[in-house]
Amino acid sequence: MIGGTAKQFVSILLAVALFLGSIVIIATLDQPAVSDVVQARADRDDAQKVFETQKQLINSAKATLQQYEDLGKMTERFGFVLPISAEYGELTNNVLGLAGANGLKAGSMTFTQGDISSPPQPDIPTKGFGTMTVNLALEGPYAGFRSFIEKLETNSRLLDVKEVQVSQQGDTLHYQLTLLVYYQS
Predict the structure, then answer these.
(1) Which of 156, 165, 175, 164 is CA-nearest to residue 79?
(2) Closest Cα to residue 151, out of 179, 174, 176?
(3) pLDDT digits (tens, 9 = 90+) for 103-156
(4) Structural domain tally of the chain?
(5) Which of the listed residues 54, 81, 108 is the one where a domain comes to its end?
(6) Which of 81, 104, 121 is the last residue in one of the domains?
(7) What is the extent of the structural domain holding 116?
(8) Which of 74, 105, 117, 111 is nearest to 91 (CA)?
(9) pTM greater than the 0.85 cutoff
(10) CA nearest 81: which of 184, 185, 179, 161?
């Protein structure tokens, strides 16, 4: 019986030794795979951080581009209010179109170039502005003239009504206007 117990003991020891040996072999063989998995996760986390940084840079670039596009639109709108040059033709069409739309007949229209100012602060890249005096003769009903003046006030072009003279010849009212028109120089 003692021989049988020794055999069982040796069998159990052998089984435990094989089990421990297999654990050591598995741990030894899996160690590079585990370190590869840990490295792969670290690389993935680094790539995710780079991706997020790049995404933020792209969004920032898009926002900057949008600001420049908006600036271009604003410059274009500003150009309607204060054109880059005197633009006699556009001004003539604008004023005479307003007059005709309000039932007024245009007579003479003369232009006199005014002073050109320098920029207010030379160290800031801005333009100065020039002025042009426009003398305009109109005739027609008072209601049309009043509407014409209101339209000039709300017109996109920057100008001042400097002087108005009204005279009557028979049933017709005659208006002599002096406008001061501004533009960029």
Answers:
(1) 156
(2) 179
(3) 999 888 888 887 766 655 556 555 667 788 889 999 999 999 999 999 888 887
(4) 2
(5) 81
(6) 81
(7) 88-184
(8) 111
(9) no
(10) 184
